[in-house]
Amino acid sequence: MTERIPAPGTRFVHAGSDPREQRGYVNPPVHRASTVLYEDVRAMEESQSDPLKRNHPVYGRFGTPTGRAFETALAELEGGHAAIATCSGLAAATTAVLSFVRAGDHILVSDSVYVPTRRFCDSLAALGVVTEYYDPEIGAGIEELLRPETRLAYLESPGSTTFEVQDVPAITAVCRSRDVVTVIDNTWATPAFCRPLALGADVVVHSATKYLTGHADSILGAIVCTEDTYATVRGAAIRLGQCAGADDVYLGLRGIRTLGVRLQQHQRQAVELATWLRDRPEVVEVVYPALPGDRGHRLWQRDFTGAAGLFGVVLDGRFGKPAVDAMLDRLHLFGLGHSWGGFESLMVPADSLAHRLPGTRRPAGTLLRVHAGFEDPADLLADLDHAFTELTTRHG
After folding, report:
1. Which residues are catalytic?
2. Over its length of 396 residues, how does the chain's per-residue pLDDT go in tens digits?
3. Cis ω on the peptide bond leading into residue 51 (within 30° of 0)?
4. Residues 342/216, Cβ–Cβ less than 8 Å
């Protein structure tokens, strides 16, 4: 009889947990530890002989049982060989890139990438690494940009702020044929809605601060690797001193348990808000791959099983910055704050072209980034209706 493969919701609940090894408790204890003591010198030397072994206690910076539980759970959910916890999402991105590049290398980076990641890639010029940004909708055409010295391609799909969906299988197939490593940021979809390793990527990075933790109370990052890439990335993380705090990885593991149901609710909220906003006279475009008619909808349907609660709204160009600022100030339930992925709704202005390639499609008006939280939709819509009506009355 073929063994039944558990559904995603079941895996979220049980991945990385073994109550038998936790004295029967459902959750692993929080190990706040640095020093590890050994029975004798031989045991210490054996443990230190290979710090890449995931279950060898060596030193707290290399990982505690709490961290291992989080890493094991995320690797299982992403379909990877192993994961590495880092102190932040940006640390996950930078560590992944630094694992593979060296002076003289050329890397390709999506033009829609998270701005702090972009700034880091720009800084690699000081180390002799050339960064070239590519149109996120390039697909297999990325082959024309590959050089003999191209070492790595960095993807983010959907793109940060502008939400372009990339043809990940096409890009990774081209890169793999030329021995170019592919790294992808999967923070938006999480393994609940997309598994990029199954689409051909070599390494997946997460800002676990966002949906994986899910409660706006932790800063955490993670890298998930294939078997071929794990030793390289893990070794680099050790050399760079990368590690995550015990409380943060515990909160990340706690967040994973409810990831499936939370993402489904974020999606329901976002679809309702995005559909309502698309019909408003103040709005010229809603940028959300889950909506039919969105530029990335076809690829989203093919490669994703759902959509997160983060999307973009473009206001009519007749509303200038003072009017939009006043509208945002009138909102009560939508907070003005960076980050996202928690239970709270947010709306912030987003400059989509400040760091983009010349010729990038310009929005017709001010772009706002919206995160749909868990407040009652009727209350959120009432808050938006009041603010938008005031916007039109005073400035329309």
Report:
1. 61, 114, 185, 210
2. 456 667 777 776 656 666 667 666 667 878 888 888 888 998 888 877 765 565 667 777 777 888 999 999 999 999 999 999 999 999 999 999 999 999 999 999 999 999 999 999 999 999 999 999 999 999 999 999 999 999 999 999 999 899 999 999 999 999 999 999 999 999 999 999 999 999 999 999 999 999 999 999 999 999 999 999 999 999 999 999 999 999 999 999 999 999 999 999 999 999 999 999 999 999 999 999 999 999 999 999 999 999 999 999 999 999 999 999 999 999 999 999 989 999 999 999 987 666 777 667 777 789 999 999 999 999 999 999 999 999 998 876
3. no
4. yes
Could you tell me which residues are beta bridge partners of residue 221?
86, 207
CB proximity list for 165: less than 8 A, separation 6 or greater = 157, 158, 159, 289, 295, 296, 297, 299, 300, 303
Question: In the numeric block, which tokens belong to residue 213?
Answer: 């933790």
pTM over 0.90: yes
Q: Which domains does the chain possess?
A: 8-257 (3.40.640.10), 260-395 (3.90.1150.10)
DSSP state of 279: T
Cβ-Cβ contacts under 8 Å for 115 (sequence gap 6 or more): 160, 354, 355
CB 131 within 8 A of CB 150: no
Size (the chain), residues: 396
Alpha-carbon distance of 204 to 71, in angstroms, equals: 13
DSSP secondary-structure letter at 197? G
Which tokens belong to 176? Answer: 């793999």
The β-bridge relationship of strands 130-134 and 367-371 is: unpaired
- The residues, any chain, with a CB within 8 Å of residue 293's CB and separated by 6 or more, are none
Both tokens assigned to 296: 């990335």
- Residue 169 to residue 158: CA distance in whole angstroms: 14
Give residue 134's Cα distance to chain centre: 19
The first and second tokens of residue 188, run together, are 């938006």
Amino acid at 41: V
The conformation of residue 189, written as its DSSP 8-state character, comes to T
Q: For residue 107, what are the β-bridge partners?
A: 131, 152
